[in-house]
Specification:
- This protein is of the alpha/beta class.
- The chain is 39% helix and 11% strand.
- It contains 15 helices and eight strands.
- Strands 2-1-4-3-5-6-7-8 form an eight-stranded mixed sheet, sandwiched between helices.
- Strand 5, helix 6 and strand 6 form a beta-alpha-beta unit.
- Helix 1 packs across helix 7.
């Protein structure tokens, strides 16, 4: 097998392995280090070594482009533009006009850029202007919140007055920090000088109490970089190992249950009178067809051996009982009190995104179930605001 074939095989392996920790046992945090490591951790080590060996056979002369960051707006007002990848959105500062009212989308940890590709066009089709805030997605939450506030102040200066925040995963913590920190909204979401008014907060799989998966974010980083390669159609395999070179992943410790950040945010009250809609995933059972596909994977068999592959499949089978949506527990995602909470039998991303990369833990056949709830809430809010 030539080096390029090895890299392609490695990328396929990354896509398969990226789902493994999301379905690993929550009890892995207390794993006895004197015993054999969990199957997915052994797979990660072997995958990295094999891909690194393949990359070592090639010489690279070009560097890949850095991901887009900041406040972005679709290139035009069509749903098709809103469905495009982040690099095909326009920096808000370069747009011909800034909407006075918009839905602001804020992604989570190690997000490859496709999480909004179903929701954003649905919002535009329903008549809601859309913005997205992209940021270095493995830096500390406090730093990301500071970047968000800076972007919101610039957008307010350009004419943005009202926003609905839709935050996925860690993006909810970033947003909540901005809403409650003293140098931000300081809890005054309705009339804070120099910042747009926040009319609703929609939390999609937000780990309010943290997530044990944060300890094992290396595989999510592989998934992010490989997915970016596919979305951008660059087919540059170097991003698959970028997680070793793009910083120390400061967001991981922030998201651990009981961390200083989680403890600090838990102590802050929810801004009074700010409506919150919460979407929670709870996997009822792994998709048997997906598990069979993993069981038949020659690549995983080569990486792990039959015994450890069987162990990995057993870990996947425990996902529903242990980790809620596969990444965030039901208790963590529903920790902020609200009477507008919706639970669906889907995984962490499938709440708002249909993705073939998430086949193991299941998705609803009718599409991402959270989108309908979001559109209903926004329509009701718009009708009230227009009265």
């Amino acid at each position: 097998m030539g080096p390029l074939s090895k890299i392609v095989a490695g990328c396929v392996g990354a896509l398969l392995l990226a789902i493994a920790p999301a379905c690993g046992r929550a009890g892995a945090d207390t794993h006895d280090q004197t015993t054999d490591p969990p199957a997915w951790r052994e797979a990660m080590r072997k995958f990295e070594q094999k891909l690194d060996d393949a990359l070592g056979e090639l010489t690279w002369t070009e560097s890949k482009a850095e991901p887009v960051a900041g406040m972005l707006i679709p290139a035009d007002d069509t749903p098709q533009a809103a469905a495009r990848i982040p690099s095909q959105w326009t920096p808000l500062a370069d747009a011909p006009a800034t909407p006075a009212r918009a839905v602001l989308l804020i992604h989570g940890l190690d997000e490859p850029g496709d999480i909004w590709m179903d929701l954003a066009p649905a919002l535009v089709e329903a008549g809601h202007p859309v913005l997205r805030f992209d940021y270095p997605n493995d830096q500390r939450v406090h730093d990301s919140a500071r970047m968000l506030l800076e972007a919101l102040r610039r957008a307010h200066d350009a004419g943005l007055r009202d926003i609905t925040i839709i935050a996925h995963s860690m993006g909810g913590l970033v947003s909540f920090d901005a809403l409650t920190r003293d140098d931000g909204y300081a809890g005054d979401f309705a009339a804070h000088e120099g910042l747009p008014r926040v009319t609703r907060f929609i939390a999609v799989g937000v780990p309010w109490n943290g997530s044990p998966w944060a300890r094992y974010r290396a595989l999510a980083e592989i998934r992010e970089q490989v997915t970016r390669m596919v979305l951008e159609e660059s087919w540059d395999p170097r991003p698959a190992l970028d997680y070793r070179r793009d910083g120390s992943g400061q967001a991981g410790p922030d998201l651990m249950p009981g961390s200083a950040l989680i403890t600090e945010l838990q102590a802050r009250p929810w801004p009074e009178a700010l409506p919150i809609t919460t979407l929670v995933g709870h996997i009822s059972r792994p998709d048997p067809a997906g598990l069979e596909q993993l069981a038949d994977s020659k690549l995983l068999l080569e990486l792990l051996g039959q015994e450890k592959l069987d162990s990995l499949l057993a870990d996947l089978g425990q996902a529903a009982a242990d980790l809620g949506d596969g990444v965030v527990s039901v208790n963590s995602a529903g920790a902020r009190a609200t009477d507008d909470l919706h639970t669906f039998k889907v995984n962490h991303r499938a709440l708002i995104r249909h993705s073939p990369l998430d086949f193991v833990t299941g998705q609803e056949p009718g599409g991402p179930p959270g989108i309908a709830v979001i559109l209903e809430r926004l329509e009701a809010d718009r009708a009230q605001q227009d009265q």
